[in-house]
Write a structure and sequence with these properties.
Radius of gyration: 19 Å
Pfam family, one: SBF
InterPro entries: BilAc:Na_symport/Acr3, Bilac:Na_transpt, Na+/solute_symporter_sf
Membrane topology: Multi-pass membrane protein
CATH architecture: Up-down Bundle
Keywords: Membrane, Transmembrane, Transmembrane helix
CATH class: Mainly Alpha
Protein name: Sodium Bile acid symporter family protein
Order of helices and strands: HHHHHHHHHHHHH
CATH topology: Na+/H+ antiporter like fold
Structural class: mainly alpha
Number of domains: 1
Number of strands: 0
Strand content: under 5%
Helix content: over 70%
Shape: globular
Length: 312
C-alpha cells in the first residue's frame, strides 16, 4: 500500500488536478511523526532552564540581531535561492521547511565548544523555541502560497492547517509535562531522559522502515547539484549572520553565538513535520536527512575551529 501511495503521490505533483490531500489518518507515518514530535519535545521540558537565567536586558541587542536573522534574513535568502535556482519541488519543500524550523538545542553544545557567549546562545534557544509555535506554521503557509508553485497535494493550505492543529498539542503537552517533572521530581529527570532517548530511537527506526518505499525513487536523482545547493545555502547563511552581527557591533563571543544559531536548524522538528506534510516525497526526506548530517558536521567543525582561535 505504501509503495502504491508513494507512486500516486509522485505523479500528483505534476498533475493539474492532484489527488486529495493526505490526511493524518490514512498512513501510519503520521502517527509515528506525531509520537516522534512528542518524544522530542518532552526532554526539552525536562531540561529547560529557567527564563530568569538569561539577563534579557544585557542581551537585547544580540537577541534582536539573532532573531531577525533567523526569522527574516534566512527566509529572504532561501526565497531568493528557490526563485533563482531550478531545483526539484521536493527539494524546494525541504529547503523551505529548514527555513521554517531554525534553532535547536544542539546550539548550546556548539556554543560551549566554541567558547562563544553562552547566555546569548541560551537566550536565542529559548526565544526561538517559543516563536516556532507561531512562526513555523506561518512561514510554511507563506512558502506554500507564494514560493512553491509545484507544492504537493499534501502541502495545500487546508492540509497544512489540519497538520498544525495536531502538531501544536503534540509539542506543547509533552513540553509542559517534562517541565512539571523537572519542577516536582528533579531526581527522576536523568532516568526519564534515558527512557525517552530509547523510545525516540525506536520511533526513528519505525519511521525509516515505514518511509523506505518513498526513499527509493529519491536515490535515483542526480544528487551532486542538489547537495552543492545545500552547501552553498549553508555557507551564505553563515556569512550573512557574521556580517550583520559585525555591523551591529556585537561582542566577538556574541557574534559566534549568532552565527551558530543561524547556521543550525531544528532537525528534531523538521523531520517529523516532513513525515506529516509530505511523507511520500523521497527527495524532500533525503534532502532533510543530508541537511541534518551536514549541519552537525559543519557546526562541529566551526565550533572546534573557534575553540582554538582567540576571541577578538
Amino acid at each position: 500500500m505504501a509503495a502504491a501511495r508513494s507512486q500516486a503521490y509522485a505523479s500528483s505533483r505534476y498533475d493539474p488536478h492532484p489527488m486529495p490531500p493526505i490526511t493524518l489518518t490514512d498512513n501510519p507515518t503520521s502517527l509515528i511523526a506525531l509520537l516522534l514530535l512528542a518524544l522530542i519535545s518532552f526532554p526539552i521540558g525536562l531540561k529547560m532552564p529557567p527564563l530568569a537565567s538569561v539577563p534579557w536586558r544585557q542581551q537585547s541587542r544580540a537577541l534582536t540581531v539573532g532573531v531577525a536573522l533567523q526569522w527574516l534574513g534566512l527566509p529572504l535568502l532561501t526565497a531568493m535561492l528557490i526563485v533563482a535556482v531550478p531545483v526539484p519541488p521536493g527539494a524546494s519543500n525541504a529547503l523551505w521547511l529548514v527555513t521554517a524550523t531554525p534553532g535547536g538545542y544542539v546550539l548550546l553544545t556548539f556554543a560551549l565548544t566554541a567558547r562563544s557567549d553562552l547566555l546569548t546562545a541560551l537566550g536565542l534557544s529559548l526565544t526561538t523555541t517559543a516563536l516556532k509555535l507561531l512562526l513555523t506554521p506561518l512561514l510554511w503557509w507563506i512558502g506554500v502560497r507564494y514560493l512553491l508553485p509545484e507544492a504537493t497535494a499534501a502541502s495545500t493550505f487546508d492540509s497544512v492547517a489540519a497538520t498544525m492543529s495536531q502538531v501544536v498539542p503534540a509539542l506543547l503537552l509533552p513540553l509542559l509535562i517534562g517541565w512539571l517533572i523537572q519542577q516536582r521530581w528533579p531526581a527522576a529527570v536523568p532516568r526519564v531522559a534515558r527512557v525517552t532517548l530509547v523510545l525516540t530511537l525506536l520511533m526513528v527506526l519505525a519511521g525509516l522502515v515505514d518511509a523506505a518505499d518513498a526513499l527509493r525513487p529519491g536515490l535515483q536523482l542526480n544528487w551532486p547539484p542538489l547537495l552543492a545547493l545545500v552547501i552553498v545555502h549553508h555557507a551564505l547563511v553563515c556569512l550573512l549572520a557574521y556580517g550583520l552581527a559585525w555591523l551591529a557591533h556585537l561582542a566577538p563571543a556574541q557574534r559566534r553565538s549568532v552565527v551558530l544559531a543561524c547556521s543550525t536548524f531544528n532537525a528534531g522538528l523538521a523531520i517529523p513535520l516532513a513525515l506529516l506534510l509530505f511523507p511520500y516525497d523521497g527527495i524532500a526526506l533525503l534532502t532533510l536527512g543530508f541537511w541534518a548530517l551536514w549541519r552537525v558536521a559543519i557546526g562541529t567543525a566551526i565550533a572546534f575551529y573557534w575553540r582554538w582561535r582567540p576571541i577578538r
